Amino acid sequence: MALERNPLIAGRLEKLSALRENGVDPFPPRTPPRLPVEQVRAMGSGHGSEVSTSGRVRARREHGKTVFADLSDPTGRIQLYFNSREVSPELWRLLGHVDLGDMIWVTGTLFTTRMGELTLAVSGMTILVKAVRPMPVVKVDSSGEVHDAVSDPDLLYRHRCVDLLLNPVSRKRFEDRSRIISAVRAYLDGLGFIEVETPILQQLYGGASAEPFTTKYNFLDRECYLRIATELYLKRLLAGGFHRVYEIGKDFRNEGVDRTHSPEFTQLELYEAWSDYRGMMARFEELVVVSAEAAGKGGEVVYQGRTLRMEPPFPRIPFVDALHEKSGEKLFDFEPDRLARFAAGLGIPVESAARPALLDKLFDHFVVPGLVQPCFVTDYPAELSPLAKRNSSDPRLTERFEAFMAGIELANAFSEQNDPLLQRSILEAQAVEDGVRQGEVDEEFLYALELGMPPAGGLGLGVDRLVMILTDAGSIRDVILFPHLRREK
RNA sequence: GAGCCGCUAGCUCAGGCGGUAGAGCAUCUGACUUUUAAUCAGAGGGUCCGGGGUUCGAGUCCCCGGCGGCUCACCA
User: Which of A75, A90, A209, A466 has a CA-to-CA distance to A417 between 20 and 30 Å?
Assistant: First the structure.
């Protein structure tokens, strides 16, 4: 939409050209020396010395010969006071061209008003930025109640800058996200892990079962994929002698979107030689504690009204035991046909009547909703875990766990399968079932196993979901700055 | 991909059974020298998401489409 069609914008554009005609640059290249608002406030009133700051004009209250305005920067908010008897006629005229949302630099002295508010009596001002587009005005009354809060999620997701400016909760959430990721890095770096970057653009995808995004590399005239996981590359590094490695980066899955799924999401994967899935439980517990601290949370986190106790050790719940207990049936021992009939009886779609998929769906149905407090579900069926080591006591199961909280899967980890012959047969069998990959297996990955990959534990952790829980976000879109949306018409 | 709900001024929202489109904030004009959701008086501002249909007449009813939200499906 053309800017001028909005009368509010047209009015601002007129003020902007009026400023230019008077020789005022509405977008000057430099800001005069200034202190952050927070520091100005800390000085307090009564010392009489001149201070300067800058920020965005967020409110304006006119009283004839005086004007009050609120100025804010990322560190805080301060009230400005303009008195037409005390400022120059030029400044008073300039003030008439300042709109809500404009950024200004001001200088003056601090005093306290009758109402007891610390205020800067302005004696000098320059315009730093003329805001051409008005932003919604949100008011907060003396009891702290917010009026006219912008509630249109489309507007807030599409124009995240508006959301960040208007919603302190959202702003804090993204600051916490940054702190959490920094804390995760600091924790792993402190243990001697090295952070690496592996390919996002791949000619063969793997490491998870998900539909990839497909693209084309023109130079090679070849189809390429965006990665769905980093697993197979990081394990090559294990074989290559990087015994503690991790990567934090985006994975892409061409699947549906919901409260906990985004097509583009941030995953931490870490691999640690000479460890196993039990070692990964300890890593997970420590990562959660460190992250909660980074988000300013203690041992208890309230998520969507439920209190989660973040105090390790988290209980271990064997997959099969939980499934049998919650369903009241020995489902793991059912023949595939009987399992399919049982699932169909519950209204669970059984199009892909494969036993592994059914077990997983039944687990999601019976067990996952009840996994509110942090816990580990352990010993997943081997059929669901092609890259995990078999359980020595029961080869139908694997040394694997998934971590859950608030019914959300946060992490997946196992003792990594490093038998190259067994791994090859599993992957080849799977490739036959999976038509999309047309029988291809990742030979480079198998090459690394053949060379010898140390026994190791590996952990994949959904960073967005961890941030959701620690910042009480109801949707993954609330913790992704620019979530995927359809194009605006 | 399916079902349900929503879309009205820049923002938040009203619009009974189909009969000339409303409020608060924001904007503009005027008043006001310590206000703070400032106040008071006045004014302007609309492709009622888009298209089609029914009707003398549609923001309102019907159909198709767009975008969003929720739920489901998909996601080892």
Answer: A466
H or E element that contains A39: helix A37-43
**A387 nearest nt, CA–C1':** B76
Window 2-31 of chain A: CB closer than 7 A to strand B? 6-8, 11
Q: Does the ipTM surpass 0.95?
A: no
* Positions of strand B less than 7 angstroms from a protein CB: 1, 10-13, 24-28, 31-39, 44-45, 66-76
Instruction: Look up the protein residue whose alpha carbon has the minimum distance to the C1' of B26.
Output: A137
Does A425 lie in the same domain as A283?
A: yes
Give the residue among A416, A463, A481 at the shortest CA–CA distance from A288: A463
Confidence grade of residue A436 (pLDDT, cut at 50, 70, 90): very low
Does any domain span residue A143?
no
Asked, for residue A485, whether it belongs to a domain, the answer is no
A257 and A394 share one domain: yes
Average pLDDT in the A60-65 region?
93
Residue A223 and residue A127 share a domain: no
Residue A212 has pLDDT above 60, yes or no: yes
CB of residue A79 closer than 7 A to nucleic acid strand B? yes
Expressed as residue numbers, the domain containing A23 is: 7-135
The total domain count for chain A is: 2
Regarding whether A179 and A131 lie in a shared domain, the answer is no
The whole-number Å distance from A94's CA to B45's C1' is: 26
Instruction: Indicate whether A298 and A249 sit together in one domain.
Output: yes
A309 within a domain of the structure (yes/no): yes
A388 inside domain: yes
* Same domain for A181 and A108: no
Q: Nearest residue to B75, CA vs C1'?
A: A255
Confidence class for position A346, pLDDT limits 50, 70, 90: confident
Residue A410 tokens, joined: 């946060």
pTM for this model (two decimals): 0.93
Kindly state whether residues A263 and A378 are assigned to the same domain: yes
Q: Which two tokens stand for residue A154?
A: 């489309």
A198 with A84, same domain: the answer is no
A489: closest CA among A134, A1, A163, A153? A1
Q: Could you tell me the two tokens for A312?
A: 């390790």
Residue A1 has pLDDT above 80, yes or no: no
Closest CA to A45 of A114, A96, A104, A95: A114
For residue A214, give the CATH number of its domain: 3.30.930.10
Alpha carbon distances (Å) from A219 to A32, A111, A222, A224, A226: 50, 67, 8, 12, 17
